[in-house]
Recover the amino acids of this structure.
């Protein structure tokens, strides 16, 4: 039985002894300062996220410094001064002394960690942190530190020298920290059937769930087990004095060694059992890893007579970046099984390479993904399985692979509901030059693959191709998807417009310049000849209204100019790391654009969205006099404008050339990219459509970005399109699930400071382009005047005029080419100067915040240390006789 007053007495003595001098405070100050330097280095500002992810990656290295510093004197000082023998002659037990000392070093570490909470304060001052994530992260820091403290105490007992104890402590703590980097011997992995045992036993791997917002019970057990094992070793070392010098000293030594090994194996076994339970409560603000009410309701409404079978095929070992995906998938599946009871049967199949299970997975459509992994310092390619097949009766949905950024609950719930429903809704895909369904193109004589948007829709809907060559059945489709209707011929357009007049839901995408898809499909461009530019045969049937889609936009009561392109500065402000790689025609729709209604908060399609990216988009507005309801969905920021086709695009022999720095003039409007249009049109026609003035928004590239959050982009392009389809189809069950994702918690204070420099760069670029254009026009005018002078010279004969005009025009072209090259060179020089100046200003702002973030955190510890030092100095001076004090 532990006596609390004894434990507390030992605790109090050791805790206050650590702070008896300035050395203890210095270690805390260094701990906080180094932590701040790691947490807020340059990558922190590049990522533009208010979290401690950089510190998470390096925190275990920081502990290798602070933990030995805390524990190095806890036993070694006692043994050096000889107070150890005195301590154990007192009426106290070994365990009471051990627990008291351990609680003391835990309290010291907790104090140091509490001072480091100033990192979270810095996050709050310059950004919008997720406090649930901060809580789980610091809980992980505390558990990892407490575990290593027990190892540091063992090292301290092995010597009576504090410096040696520090080195031994760092060495002993390095074992659980670095074991994950040690290559796993092949014979051992084959023996135990686990290729990543060393990595799973490492502290960084056990901390990882805490750093992403989980309260991992298996992680807690690991840290507690490690602590218990090390304290047991410490207890054995303390008790060694009772039997080491006896007759059975060697025998007792082997006895305790075997006992310690058994305790270690028992703890490892317990950890392995609980690790498979995947019990990880979610502490993040958005509760992204907790089953929602939508899923609970769906599972509750399932028919027990038509049970759903979920077969998950999961590799036993996956690369580090997929560990969290695997953990979340297995955790969610266990929740589905518990909630579903007899309605849901979950089968988790562990897949090994080249096994029967791998063949079964491939036969069911589960794809093995080849990814890079690092083991033992070597990079290698691995084929991993992370997919599922959901079936009920004859209905089946296959999820080939769960990518890093794919919302797992949404995918599972959608698939369960799809197979449980007796009938799917139908989406019709209108045949246009966009070729959404793929197939052979008679104009280019090439096959094109099916677009990813069609593949995605097939997971939920029955998707059919719709020909506009004849009347479209208005009873067959729940939603009609029309992409690039401006490419339709007169007859096809008439059939499509007749369908829209009947009030059936239609989602329309059109684009003045589909830059990512195929610029030659631009409405202003003629239809290509069969076989390409040099193809033979009759010319193709031309576009209705010359590509203007006049009858369609008139029916919808909107103004859409097929030769106007929107630009906006928001993307460079939101992602300054891309400032030199993107242009203003790449438009980011975001609330951070300065327009709080960039996403309509009252529309189920757009409420909750954070960022949508469009390329060379058009703009629409309600036509004056239209009686239709016009609900804006996607709107640019106020710092935007419109470019005409001729200002941006130049046709050449080799195709279309896009002007790199056109003259952009900001207007006073925020431009509408997408809107929902509904109501009764003229002549009794009804309309219900969502019109999007951009086609690149649904290109395959954005699906790849969505799956892996490439370039640290977390875009809502795919979510917006799927929400629009569901809303038009009247099936909004999944919309809330799609919106479940981390909030963009950016460094708002940094963004406000750097925004003005990005705006100045844009203005300087515009100014340089305008000056270049004016200079070029001036040169053209001067050269033209020379030609006109020759033409107006009455003293020359007609033949002489023709000859001299030809010579003058040749000279004009040569001079103009030289002048144009010089002018463009000067323009690029001015733009480069502006860009460099802007980058220097932005770096200066970031450095200012970095200085703030690294100097503020240590200040409380420094002030407390100075206060304690001054207080003790004053107390010491009081005890000195006045005659002995120095003046």
């Amino acid at each position: 039985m532990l006596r609390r007053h004894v434990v507390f007495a030992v605790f109090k003595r050791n805790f206050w002894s650590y702070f008896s001098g300035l050395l203890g405070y210095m270690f805390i100050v260094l701990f906080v300062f180094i932590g701040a330097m790691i947490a807020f280095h340059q990558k922190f500002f590049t990522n533009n996220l208010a979290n401690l992810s950089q510190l998470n990656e390096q925190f275990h290295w920081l502990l290798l410094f602070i933990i030995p510093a805390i524990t190095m004197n806890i036993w070694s000082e006692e043994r050096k001064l000889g107070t150890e023998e005195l301590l154990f002659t007192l009426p106290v037990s070994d365990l009471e002394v051990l627990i008291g000392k351990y609680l003391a070093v835990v309290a010291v570490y907790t104090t140091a960690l509490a001072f480091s909470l100033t990192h979270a304060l810095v996050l709050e001052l310059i950004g919008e942190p997720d406090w649930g994530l901060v809580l789980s992260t610091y809980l992980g820091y505390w558990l990892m530190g407490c575990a290593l403290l027990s190892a540091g105490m063992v090292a301290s007992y092995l010597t009576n020298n504090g410096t040696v104890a520090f080195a031994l402590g760092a060495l002993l703590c390095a074992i659980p920290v670095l074991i994950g980097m040690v290559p796993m011997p092949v014979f051992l992995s084959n023996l135990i059937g686990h290729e990543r045992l060393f990595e799973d036993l490492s502290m960084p791997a056990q901390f990882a769930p805490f750093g992403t917002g989980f309260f991992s019970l298996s992680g807690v057990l690991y840290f507690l087990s490690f602590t218990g094992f090390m304290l047991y070793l410490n207890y054995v070392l303390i008790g060694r004095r009772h039997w080491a010098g006896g007759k059975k000293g060697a025998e007792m030594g082997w006895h305790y060694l075997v006992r310690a090994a058994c305790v270690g194996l028992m703890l490892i076994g317990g950890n392995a059992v609980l690790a498979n339970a995947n019990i990880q409560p979610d502490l993040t603000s958005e509760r992204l890893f907790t089953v929602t009410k939508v899923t609970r309701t769906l599972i509750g409404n399932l028919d027990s007579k038509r049970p759903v079978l979920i077969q998950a095929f999961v590799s036993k070992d996956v690369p580090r970046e997929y560990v969290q995906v695997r953990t979340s998938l297995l955790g969610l599946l266990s929740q589905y099984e518990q909630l579903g009871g007899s309605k849901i049967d979950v089968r988790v199949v562990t897949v090994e390479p080249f096994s029967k299970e791998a063949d079964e997975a491939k036969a069911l459509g589960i794809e093995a993904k080849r990814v890079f992994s690092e083991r033992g310092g070597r990079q290698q390619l691995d084929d991993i399985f992370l997919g599922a097949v959901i079936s009920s009766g004859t209905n089946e949905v296959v999820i080939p692979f769960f990518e890093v950024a794919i919302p797992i609950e949404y995918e599972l719930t959608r698939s369960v509901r799809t197979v449980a429903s007796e009938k799917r809704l139908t989406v019709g895909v209108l045949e246009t030059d966009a070729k959404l369904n793929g197939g052979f193109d008679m104009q280019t004589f090439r096959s094109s693959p099916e677009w990813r948007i069609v593949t995605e829709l097939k997971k939920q809907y029955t998707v059919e191709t719709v020909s506009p060559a004849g009347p479209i059945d208005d009873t067959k489709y729940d939603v009609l998807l029309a992409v690039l209707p401006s490419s339709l011929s007169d007859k096809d357009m008439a059939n499509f417009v007749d369908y829209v007049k009947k009030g059936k839901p239609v989602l329309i995408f059109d684009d003045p310049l589909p830059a990512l898809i195929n610029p030659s499909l631009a409405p202003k461009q003629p239809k290509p000849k069969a076989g390409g530019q040099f193809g033979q045969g009759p010319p193709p049937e031309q576009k209705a209204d010359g590509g203007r889609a006049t009858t369609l936009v008139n029916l919808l009561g909107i103004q859409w100019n097929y030769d106007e392109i929107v630009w906006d500065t928001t993307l460079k402000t939101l992602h300054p790391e891309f400032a030199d790689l993107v242009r203003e025609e790449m438009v980011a729709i975001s609330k951070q654009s300065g327009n709080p209604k960039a996403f309509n908060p009252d529309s189920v399609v757009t409420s909750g969205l954070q960022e949508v990216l469009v390329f060379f988009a058009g703009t629409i507005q309600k036509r004056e006099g239209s009686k239709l309801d016009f609900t804006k969905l996607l709107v640019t920021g106020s710092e935007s404008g419109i470019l005409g086709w001729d200002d941006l695009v130049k046709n050449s022999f080799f195709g279309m050339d896009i002007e790199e720095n056109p003259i952009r003039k900001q207007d006073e409007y925020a431009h509408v990219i997408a809107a929902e249009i509904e109501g009764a049109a003229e002549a009794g026609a009804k309309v219900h459509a969502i019109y999007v003035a951009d086609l690149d928004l649904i290109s395959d590239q954005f699906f790849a970005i969505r799956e892996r959050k490439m370039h640290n982009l977390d875009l809502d392009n795919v979510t917006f399109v799927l929400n629009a389809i569901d809303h038009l189809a009247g099936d909004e069950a999944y919309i809330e699930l799609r919106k479940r994702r981390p909030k963009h918690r950016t460094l708002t204070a940094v963004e406000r400071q750097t925004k003005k420099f990005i705006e100045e760069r844009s203005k300087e670029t515009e100014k340089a382009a305008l000056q270049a254009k004016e200079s070029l026009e001036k040169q053209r005018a001067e050269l033209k005047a020379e030609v006109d002078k020759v033409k107006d010279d009455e003293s020359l004969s007609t033949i002489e005029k023709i000859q001299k005009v030809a010579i003058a025009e040749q000279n004009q072209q040569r001079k103009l080419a030289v002048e144009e090259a010089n002018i463009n060179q000067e323009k690029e020089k001015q733009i480069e100067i502006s860009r460099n100046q802007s980058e220097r200003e932005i770096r200066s702002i970031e450095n200012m915040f970095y200085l703030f973030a690294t100097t503020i955190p240590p200040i409380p510890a420094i002030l407390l240390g100075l206060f304690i030092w001054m207080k003790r100095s004053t107390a010491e001076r009081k005890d000195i006789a006045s005659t002995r004090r120095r003046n």
